[in-house]
Design a protein that fits this description.
Elements: E1 8-10, H1 14-19, H2 24-27, E2 31-37, E3 41-48, H3 51-64
């Protein structure tokens, strides 16, 4: 079974920002955990200020899955 959650993703990247309109408050949190769905869809699970926090949550999701 493939992992449910991938790596943390820097939401400040221009390709991500141009595809999905994001409120100003959400742009302040530049790291996001994104769940990849079929047909190239994706869902933002959570956003974080620090990459270490995002990586820690990704590890937790992968271990608990």
């Amino acid at each position: 079974m493939p992992p449910i959650f991938g790596k943390s993703y820097n939401a400040d990247r221009s390709d991500f920002a141009s595809e999905i309109p994001v409120a100003y408050r959400e742009r302040l949190k530049c790291w996001a955990i994104v769940r990849l769905l079929p047909r190239t869809q994706r869902v933002v699970v959570d956003r974080f200020h620090k990459r270490a926090d995002a990586d820690g949550h990704v590890y937790f999701y992968q271990v608990s899955a």
